Every structure is written in C-alpha cells, then in structure tokens.
Amino acid sequence: MSELIPLLAELAGTEGTRRGFVPVPNGWPGVPTEFVPTFVAIHAVGWRAAQAHWEIVVARVLDTDIVKPNVSGELAIRRAVRASALLLNKMARQGRCPICPQAAMANSR
Ligand SMILES: [Zn+2]
C-alpha cells in the first residue's frame, strides 16, 4: 500500500501561490501549499528524512478510524494524505515532527 502514498514532491507540485488551500493539479485537494516546504524545513538532515517520516505517518493514519475499513484504494489514500498533511502542517509550524526524536526528551536526563 505504501507505494500509493504520494511523494512530498508530488504534493508540492502546485503553482506555489500563498492562498493556503490550493487544489493540486495531480489531485491532492485540501493539502496546504505551505505544508511541504514547512515540513521539509524542520528536517535538518533534509528531504529524504522528511519523505521517510511522511510515509510513516500516512501509513499509520491509514490504520486508524480516520480511514474507515470499508473505504479502500485511492479514496482511503486521499483521506489519509489529507489528514496527515493537516496534522503534520500544524506540528511543523511549531517546529515539530511526530517521528523525529524529540530534542527535549534527549536532554531530559
Ligand atoms: Zn521527522
């Protein structure tokens, strides 16, 4: 199933306007246009880590009730992508990623 998860580069394939929610030509409506640049920016090690973490989150969301078991294929992916993008965008704007090791936890000892 994970091969169906779109690449961050695909999600970023917009005209790059600043309106926020611009439909992506490839068909990813509801994904904020600032999501990809913001999410990639918080990954100091770069694009590949961001891509890996994106796939982990989408795969997890696919396993939750957000995506109903009786919805399959493309629709399930679309729902998971949109939900994941909104969640990660909110966290990324605070400089956080749910998959990255938390700096605060590493320093807590
Ligand atoms: Zn991360």
Explain how this protein is built:
The protein is mainly alpha-helical and 109 residues long. Helix content is 47%, strand content 0%. The protein has one domain (2-100). The N and C termini lie far apart (39 Å). The structure holds zinc ion. Zinc ion (ZN) is lined by residues 43, 49, 53, 97, 99-100. Pfam families: DUF6313.
Q: How many strand segments?
A: 0
Work out the helicity level: 40-55%
Q: Would you identify the regions where 5 or more consecutive residues have pLDDT less than 50?
A: 14-21, 104-109
Share of β-strand residues: under 5%
Distance between the termini: 39 Å
Number of helices: 5
Q: Regarding quaternary structure, how should these chains be classified?
A: single chain
Overall body shape:
globular
State the major sheet.
none
* Class inferred from helices and paired strands: mainly alpha
Task: Give the helices and strands as they follow along the chain.
Answer: HHHHH
* Rounded radius of gyration (Å): 14 Å
Overall mean pLDDT score? 78
Number of domains: 1
